What does this fold into?
Amino acid sequence: MNITFEKVESGRIKELAAMTNEIWHEYFPCILSDEQIDYMVDKFQSEKAITAQISDGYEYYFICNDGMPCGYIGLHCEAEKMFLSKLYLKKEMRGLGIAGKAFEFIFTLTKKYGKGSVYLTVNKQNQHSIDVYKHIGFEIIDSVVTDIGNGYVMDDYIFQKNL
Ligand SMILES: CC(C)(COP(=O)(O)OP(=O)(O)OC[C@H]1O[C@@H](n2cnc3c(N)ncnc32)[C@H](O)[C@@H]1OP(=O)(O)O)[C@@H](O)C(=O)NCCC(=O)NCCS
It folds into this structure.
């Protein structure tokens, strides 16, 4: 396994959006309804939505194994800290230690940008991700319920790790 990270430039947003659609519809049915997944992919992970986020300063990276995209990371460097907006691997690439490598990449970039901590939100029912975040050294600092429209809410923990 040779894991690398490739910044998503405008020419590859369509490819990224196809991957987000695949992963979200494969993973989230255990937590969210199909209707909510459709709504969230369209609102947050469509080609149009990702293009707008990148214009607003978000950075996306493909996680690649031997040059082949197998997941992605979304980051937004804020005034005080780094926001890890997205971390997703394709199903067959989970459980192989790739997330550990992704976190090394994220922490290195965070320090390069002069920030001392990384935070993220995670659905309270997303137990595997919660276990991984705790293992990596993240701690729960708060909870937040976010109204995302169309009658849907996100019930999340906020995790943070100081570097
Ligand atoms: C969340 C996700 C990226 C984690 O990746 P993963 O491949 O499952 O995790 P890894 O196998 O790389 O494990 C990362 C570390 O956590 C540890 N770990 C894995 N499962 C664990 C568990 N249940 N309890 C404690 N530690 C665990 C691993 O040992 C590894 O530690 P190491 O780096 O010290 O060896 C991946 O499961 C995923 O894409 N999930 C679906 C999408 C998702 O929910 N994304 C997050 C949305 S907030």
